[in-house]
Every structure is written in C-alpha cells, then in structure tokens.
Amino acid sequence: MNGILYFSGTGNSLHIAKKVQERFSGGIKYIPKYQGNGEEFDVIFLVTPIYSYGMPKHVYDLLPKLNKKSKLYIIQNYGGMVGGADHLTYTYCKKYGLNIQGVWTIKMTENYNLSFTVPKFYLNKALKTCNVKIEKVLNEIESGKNSIPKKKRTKEEKYLKNMSNWHIIGSRFHTSDDCVKCGKCISLCPVGNIFLKDGKICFGGKCVACLGCYHRCPQKAIKYQNKKKSFRYINPFIDENEIGKDL
What we know:
Elements: E1 2-6, H1 12-24, E2 27-30, E3 43-49, H2 57-62, E4 71-78, H3 85-95, E5 99-107, H4 120-142, H5 156-163, H6 167-171, E6 173-175, H7 184-188, E7 194-197, E8 200-203, H8 212-216, E9 222-224
C-alpha cells in the first residue's frame, strides 16, 4: 500500500501530492496531523517545500520516526534555489537508516515574498511548466530510476540555525483594520501560533514560516512589518479548502 505524506502552506506540495495519487494511488496525509510512522505503507511518497535550503520543521521532525522498511521517495519543491537542500535531505534520511530511493526537486511558484516582489512573468512561467516537470519526476520514479543528489552546499548546522530564527517571522506579523476576526488564520496554523486575545489576532513565538496565514487570509489583513504588499498566492490547481487535510 502506498502512502503520500505532504506539508503545504499555499498548495504547491498538495498539488504535487495529488499528481502522485493519480499516478500511484494511495491516501494523502497532512504531516502536521499525521500520528503514524509509515509502517502501514510499503511505499511512502513524501512531498515537501524547501525552506532555508532545507526542510520544514514538521518534515525534519518526522523523518527520524519513519519506518525503515518502507521505500521512501521524496519530492521537494522550491521557488528560488535548491541550495543543496536535496542532498541535505538525502543524507539526513541515510543518517537514520531510512530506505530512501531518491530525492527529486521541482521548481514551483515562489510564495516567499515578504521582503521582495516576485515578477508576474516569473510566477506565470513556473505555473506553465510545473506540470510537465511533475510528470517527468513521476515517470522517473515509475521507471525505477533513483535520484541521489551529488552536491552538498547546505550543512545541517547552518540549516538548523536558520530554522531557529523562523519564529522571528511570526513576531513581525500583525493584522490591519481589514481583519474581521474570522478565525481562519487560527484554524489553519500548523503549530497553533495564532490566537485571539482581547478581541485581537495575536502571533506567538512558534512560527514555522509556512506563510499559510499570510497568503490565505480572505481579507489580506495580515501584514508583515509595515510593508504594503497586495500580492498573495494560492496554488491555482487545487481547492484551497483541501490544504491541510487528508485526501
């Protein structure tokens, strides 16, 4: 039996996970809600974005717990650069004795736009080509080809240092007067970092930089520092309501 584990803030990883499901079948599990270790699966497809040239914290925490007998295929997606995240992830899996078959990377639409604006042509190009790239990766997996990254630029120590600073992002969020207290940001946060206090949306110190709250606020009321950015991103190929759910 196949299992598809994913982490996603704005839908890119979910889009890939659904493509994997179409090709190989199997249930899709949202990693923050997944309590198992993968032993129920003969094959595990793990789909994840690249954060700070590494992995989201939920993925980093899950990998050492995974069943060592299950075949593991990891598909990482990125908007900017891989930066050695594929090799870091592969060696991390080997460190814990996982049955890793390979790590593939797919360029998707950049959603980390807190401090810069991504040109629209760049976004559109990524959307136009991503499905072809996804199919190429799935063809390689289906044919039995392994993908072992050869270069290593990111050291685990540097990645961990970057991850230890992600909470700062949350401390820089605030809501504008457009906030209607709908509670969507509270419900979708994978670490419970957002809460209502004294009638105001507050952000704690556990942010994992998924940016789901920022991009998916229906009022665009969540602001980063004092920047007046209107662009928000949700993968157009999926139903937003499916992000964070098992399918």
